[in-house]
Every structure is written in C-alpha cells, then in structure tokens.
Amino acid sequence: MGFWQFLSTRHQQLLVDAYQHASAVFQCMVIATVIGVLIAVLTYRTEWAGNLAVTTTAAILTVPSLALIGLLIPILGLGVPPTVTALVLYGLLPIVRNAIVGLRGVDASLVEAARGIGMSRTARLLRVELPLAWPPILTGIRVSTQMLMGIAAIAAYASGPGLGNEIFTGIASLGSANALNEVLAGTLGIIVLALAFDAGYVLIGRLTIPRGIRG
Amino acid sequence: MTGIRPPGGRDDAPSAPGTPPGEPSAPGDDGARGGANRWDDGGAVAVADGDDGAAAGAGEDADAAAGRAAHRPARKVTWQKLVFTPAVLVVALVATYLWITHIHLDAIEHNSLDNGNVQLRLWQHIRLTAISTFWVLVIAIPLGIALTRRRLRPVAPAFTALANIGQATPAIGLLALLVIWLGIGARTAIIGIVAYAVLPVLSNTVAGLRAIDPTMVEAARGIGMSPPGVLTRVELPLAVPLILAGVRTALVLNVGTATLATFGGGGGLGDLITSGIVNQRMPVLILGSILTVALALFVDWLASIAEALLRPRGLGADT
Prior knowledge:
The complex is a heterodimer of chains A (215) and B (319).
Chain A: H1 3-43, H2 47-62, H3 65-76, H4 80-104, H5 108-116, H6 121-155, H7 164-172, H8 179-208
Helix pairs in contact in A: 1-2, 1-4, 1-6, 1-8, 2-4, 3-4, 4-6, 5-6, 6-8, 7-8
Chain B: H1 29-42, H2 58-70, H3 79-102, H4 107-113, H5 117-148, H6 156-168, H7 171-182, H8 186-210, H9 214-222, H10 227-258, H11 270-278, H12 282-310
Helix pairs in contact in B: 1-8, 2-3, 3-12, 5-8, 5-10, 6-8, 7-8, 8-10, 9-10, 10-12, 11-12
C-alpha cells in the first residue's frame, strides 16, 4: 500500500490520534504554564529561591523521558495519568526560567512608578510586571511545546494517547507492509503539529504582546 | 525558532529577554549569550531523584541540601558541587540495591535481572552514549566552524531551517524510520542517536562562534594573523565555553535517546524499562528507570565539572 493510499484509508484513525496528541500537549502546556508562572512569581524576588526553582526543574529535564514515565507507572498506573504528569514536569523548566528572567528584567523604575500612582502589589504584578515579562514567557511556552510533542510520542508506550501509537504499532510490526506507513504517518504528523503550534504561538504573540513593548 | 534547543534533552532555549517580541531570536548573539547564562545557572548541583519511591528517605535531605547549594555561584568548582550529586546518587543506588536484594522476585523477574543482565544493559547504555557523543562532536563542531566561515555564510540560514524541522522531529519516530531503513541493531541505534543530537550541538557551536566580539577578530587580523591563526588562537578559545556546553548537551541528550535504542534492538537500559512494562514486573521497571536516571544525572555532573575545569582562564567572570 502506498503512503497516500494508507493516509486515505486510515485518515479517520490518524485524525483521532493527531487530535488527541495535540489536545494532550495543549492541556499539559496550559497546566505547565499556570504552575510555571506561579512558581516564578513566588520565587523571583529571592535570589536563592529563584535559583532553586530553576535548578530543580533543570534536574527534571535531565531525566530521560522513558525513565521518568517508568518511575511514574508504579505510582499512577498506565495511560493518561503518567503521560500528563510527565509532560507537565518536562514543560516546566523553560517556562519557570524564562518567567523568572523576564520578571527580574522588568525595569525597577516602572514598578516604582506603578507603586507611586497607588497600585497594589497584585495590581503591579498583574498589570505591569507580568505583561512586560510576557514575551520571554511566551518563548518558554513555545520551547516547551515543541519538546512535549516528542515526549508525548514516547508516552504512547505507556498507553498514552496520540500519534506515538502509530509509531509504536509500526515498530511492533516491523517487516509488515504497513510498518513504514504507520511510522511515517506518526512522525510526519508530529512534525506538522509542532510546526502548526509554533505558527499559532507567533500569532498569539502578535495579539497578546502589549503594543508598547513590541519590537 | 528560538536560540539553541536540543529537543527532549535537558536544555531549553534561552530566551533573551531583550528579544523583540514575536520575533524568534535566531541562534545568534542573543541566543548565544543566553546559552552561556543558561549553563551557568543550570550548572548548579542537580537535585536528585527524590521521587524514586524505592529509595525513600534520600528525598528530604536532597531538597534541603539543594537549597543550600543552589545559591552558590555555579561557575567555580565548589566542594559542595563536587560532592552533592554523587552523594545523593550513591545513597539512592545503595537504597535501590538493598531493596531489590531483599524483596521476593518471581521467575520472570529473576530472568530479567540475573546472569549479569543488568550489568550488560548498563554497559551497553554507556557504550551507546559514549560512541554517539563522540560522533556528534566529530560531525557537529567542524561543521559549525565551517558554517561560520565567510565563504559558507550564505548556506547557514538553510541549516537553521533544517534545525527547526529537526527540533520538531520526535526521537522515537526518527529511530523507527532508521530501523525500517537499516534494520535493527546497535549500529542503527547509534546512527539515530547521533542524527538526533547533531543539530542542537551544531547550533550551539555556530551561536558560540557568532557571539564572539567582532572587534577581537578584527584586532587579531590587524596584528597580521592568518585566517587559520585567527580561528585557532582567538575564535576557538573564546568559543570553548559554548562548545563545552554543547558537549554537555550532547551527553545528556544521548543518555536519554539511548533509552530508546531498545526499540531498535540496540540494547541499553531501555531494555529493562520496556520489559518491565511489557511483563508488568515493577521491580524490573523501577530498577531500569532508577539506573537510567542515575546515569543521566551522573553524566550531567561529570560534564559540569569538565565544563568548569576546562574553561580558559582568561574567560572568568562573565562569559
């Protein structure tokens, strides 16, 4: 069976897998962004706490994904729970680091000015500091997303959702007529999804970055 | 896409906060400088795996000690940095050993863990990592140097585009395609691991060479140095920190990708993890995972020490 024929006969299954892949990565990115920015907001004002947050998340990223998933299986079982946990953990570092760098890079005189016009601590954070730190945070989100695309493929081995299943089905049936098609469909699908997400983030950047600090 | 980012590994692209929004910084100056910073703050002692269930007890100590170690400047080789990671790893490994020798193992578990199988897989993993890292460096560093020479500069954007697609490619898909193309075995696995790591290390090298102050190169030319002289006596020494960071990236990335070698019949610790999952034997799965994590953190530690020791002396504080 040729690749195009394979795509047309299997397109339903492939679309389901692609949708699940994208939605798993997207949802994990939302969780990772919330947790990551929260960690950064809590730690960026103290030197050691910020460094500890960065060091800890960096150590998580050093751990090979198959091994982390392997350690999560005895605790969380197979399927969605270890996948989500692993993806969120791996997604944290770029966000935490860029958020801390971004928040620390905000011009102190601007924060002072905001205080001067009577803004509360929360208002300063939400209306001055975070908007100014948003471009590096968004970059961190893009980096994380690309990484998670590949890790989500590996998570399919622990019965996770997504296009990784196509790849592992192909590996399991090496030598069969469809092995190449399955692996190719899974791999190319992930590349397409990764590039599409990236384009989406460029668009989000255009729409959400305050006009005043746009380059 | 952003700066220098080996996908799936420990690295992340440093976002230079000054980068114009919406405009991804090419692996150029910003990326490079961010990269250098990144290794500095990431170079602090790694917090080890308190999450390994089996080796409980190590966890709390680890966190507390990391708190103490983290705010030290990571640049210098402090004794904490030297001792902390190995100490945590030793504790975790001893605890794992005691646990695995004291629980009851059934026939399948004995089959997976006896007769030197664990040692064999560990050794295969180290071999895969070492050989692939060697090839990554042999390919990526000269290529990076070539791409920054004036004559080849027009080709560089094409490589950046290629690197972007490479970053979007999942390691497991790449490996599976190679297995179908070249057949199973350690050789295929090594080719896959190398192919996956070359691009990040290449962009690291290119970024490192580009970040060099052009006035230095100009000055070297001005005092009459030949182009090879400028390269070997000015540019390369100045790029050493970023090239070393590339070595570290490659090593850590390769330890991780080598776990996937098992899907291509290449052996390694991934074998223990997958057979643990397939046979539903948690001790095998946990042992394989802990050994992999320990190896990854150990290799990262080793590379961070090498990074600190090999940095040229003149490039102290802020490179």
